[in-house]
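mind reviewing both lines:
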Amino acid sequence: MATQWLVSKNGHPVPVLNGISLCSMVDPIKEAQKWFDSYKDILNDFDHIFVLGIGGGYHIDLLLESLPEALITVVEREASLVRGLEKKIIDWGDRVAVLSNPSINHIKSYESFHCVVEQSSYCVLVHPISFSNNPEFYKDIEDFLLGRSTEGLSYISAIKGQTNPYYQDFQKKYNLTGKESIKDIVHLIQKKNVDLSDEDLLWLSLGELIH
């Protein structure tokens, strides 16, 4: 889908997809500030920020300006929009990575994401207009990144576990290969059924969350 570009009342470029403007036609800077303010109380708690939806990029500008140490990954469904913002993306520099229309498998193979999950704390922020334009795409990505889906929970748990000595003991206890899903692990624990450790009970609780 091609992106059309219009100009807001205060002179800023505004992307339009399928007749819907992806940021304010009046003042996109003020709109971005309102978006940032809705999240600002939590942002200092995280090393990395995932943003679902690039919009006009004004909210990303504000994150970079307000959080000089933050690293940001933007996920955007519309490739034509990413192309239209190429100059801005270049200006953002190394602190911002933009993933254009990625699949879950693409994200899983994205080496920087593996490092973020393994070594950092991160949050997931939503650009509302982008999300409402492609709700199924962004919901799947959000659920994966936050471990709300079976695939996301299994992937994140496996990476976190690789650096956790307590998990490594648990892995040996059940002869795990590291490729098992949460449900596979739960099944192994349920077969044991006696003398359950705190770690066993935790995995059983995780299993309840993904039914």
In short: Strands lie at 4-7, 13-17, 20-21, 48-52, 71-76, 96-100, 122-126. The mean pLDDT is 86.
